[in-house]
Amino acid sequence: MALIVGVVLAIVCVALVALPFLREPATRDDRLVGPDELEQRRLALSEERDRALAALKELEFDHRTGKVSDEDYRNLVGPLRRRAAEALRALDLRASPTVEEPVPTHG
Q1: CA–CA separation, 104 vs 90, rounded Å?
Q2: Which pLDDT score, from 0 to 100, does residue 26 have?
Q3: What is the mean predicted confidence (pLDDT) over 17-26?
Q4: CA 37, CA 43: separation in Å to the nearest integer?
Q5: Is 56 left (phi over 0), alpha (psi -120 to 50) or beta?
Q6: Is 21 left (phi over 0), alpha (psi -120 to 50) or beta?
Q7: Looking at the predicted structure, is the pLDDT value of residue 54 above 90?
Q8: Which of these, 64, 103, 59, lies nearest to 85 by C-alpha position?
């Protein structure tokens, strides 16, 4: 008799624990919210920063391995550094809630 009560109790416990995982999610819980305009701008600036830093890293590597001459390196590094700095400054401005300035973009 005690064995039957234990088995029934175990089945009830397993059912109670598993119940939330077996239910269908409510539609309000299942929706993804897209980023708003400010978040999209921040993501675009982050991507621009990442592209500029990656290009600088690649240029440095190519220069060190001899694929890019000293003269070409000097001509290319300045604009890339400016692009990276602009993106970093724009991200810093976006992080500051009191400052809102237009940010130049490069396409």
Answers
A1: 8
A2: 66
A3: 80
A4: 10
A5: alpha
A6: alpha
A7: yes
A8: 103
